[in-house]
Write a structure and sequence with these properties.
Radius of gyration: 25 Å
Shape: elongated
Number of helices: 10
Order of helices and strands: HHHEHEHHEEEHEHHHEEEEEEEEE
Largest sheet: 6 strands, mixed
Number of strands: 15
Distance between the termini: 70 Å
């Protein structure tokens, strides 16, 4: 089979129809069935419109700009574009090549009793999996930003980031009440009282009673080791136990119990991006200075529109979609050298079902009123 590159025998073993391509991308997408964004988001029916007019009408969001995604050119797994256009749904995407060089590397392995087409398929599906993971990472990041900042930054490659305000009212965006932030030396801010104040704002705002605080793991760890919090907890304990060591886990548990507030849940976020083709750790999307109080239910709706690939009439391409139609894929073949180009794209954007069903506090900012 290795001697038959010219008639694409290896490549057509990867995909030979729209249905084959769908089987592949559905298989790799199934790995991400437990992605974080799914637990908080309902996917809306697809819209023909790729404009935010529907979102503006339904939720009152003012959209500043959006991004467009990759056309799959090298360097591999990178994005291109960067122009922003008003009132348009953001398009995200990237692609990869599987080419003659990859086939040569497989051939050079000289594996005995090995199906070379299977090795090619394994390499191809590994790359497809990495790219589909990128969509879930982007959606997770948008949800993290929305929960912490109540806005989403669209990071255009090649251009300045555009910010979409998700229209949570300012009365639900609090600051530390005192002369300094929570973790500054000598602060007059009382952390437990600020958390109670957040809960009262939630009560007054009609948030459902089943709630939890969410914050970054960085902030969570600071709270668990904070001397002010530990002292407040020990002050409520019997005198005979005040010298007892309190583990960070027990501190956080007792904090909720003693001050009659919802539990605090940490979000341990790690994501990666490419810079000049080199994967590096990305800046966390969940603001490390923010803590938010949310109801324990799905907060978001995912607006979406079908991929433009489905409009392609070129008989030499294969088209498919996965993730309920949120991710579209197209595959193109070329010769001299042999190359299979696979692109993915998605027209999607999440918004709050109710932008006031969240209360956030910036621990690094302060005021005498906490507003």
């Amino acid at each position: 089979m290795n001697a038959q590159y010219e008639n694409y025998s290896l490549l057509t073993d990867l995909t030979g129809s729209n249905e084959d391509l769908k089987v592949i991308i559905d298989s790799v997408n199934a790995k991400y069935n437990n992605s974080f964004w799914r637990s908080l988001t309902d996917v809306l029916p697809a819209s023909r419109s790729k404009r935010f007019s529907v979102i503006v009408k339904e939720t009152g969001i003012i959209v500043k700009a959006s991004v467009i995604g990759s056309m799959g050119k090298k360097p591999l797994r990178s994005f291109e574009g960067g122009r922003a256009y008003q009132d348009s749904m953001p398009k995200i995407g990237h692609g990869f090549n599987f080419d003659q060089g990859d086939l040569n590397k497989i051939d050079e392995l000289n594996l005995v009793n090995t199906d070379m087409s299977l090795e090619a398929a394994r390499m191809y599906m590994g790359r497809a999996s990495d790219l589909i993971a990128g969509f879930h990472a982007t959606w997770n990041g948008w949800i993290y930003q929305a929960m912490s900042n109540q806005e989403i930054s669209l990071k255009n490659l090649g251009g300045a980031a555009a910010v979409v305000d998700l229209r949570t009212k300012s009365a639900h965006k609090l600051k530390a009440k005192g002369d300094k932030g929570w973790f500054e030396s000598g602060t007059t801010a009382v952390i437990a009282e600020d958390l109670q104040r957040m809960n009262k704002v939630a009560d007054d705002g009609g948030l459902p009673a089943d709630r939890a605080y969410v914050c970054s793991k960085t902030l969570y760890d600071k709270l668990a080791l904070n001397a002010q919090i530990i002292a407040g907890i020990k002050a409520s304990m019997p005198l005979s136990t005040v010298d007892t060591y309190l583990s960070p886990k027990r501190v956080m548990s007792m904090l909720s119990t003693i001050y009659d507030i919802p539990p605090i849940v940490s979000i341990d976020e790690v994501s990666r991006i490419e810079i000049d083709g080199i994967p590096v750790n990305d800046v966390a999307d969940f603001n490390v200075d923010k803590i938010s109080l949310i109801p324990l239910r799905k907060l978001f709706e995912m607006h979406n529109s079908p991929s433009d690939y489905m409009k392609d009439t070129n008989p030499a391409t294969y088209k498919a979609s996965t993730e309920g139609g949120l991710i579209g894929s197209i595959q193109l073949f070329s010769s001299d050298p042999i190359n299979v180009l696979t692109n993915f794209e998605s027209w999607t954007f999440p918004t709050f079902k109710n932008p006031d069903f969240i209360v956030s506090l910036n621990t690094a900012e302060h005021s005498t009123t906490g507003l």
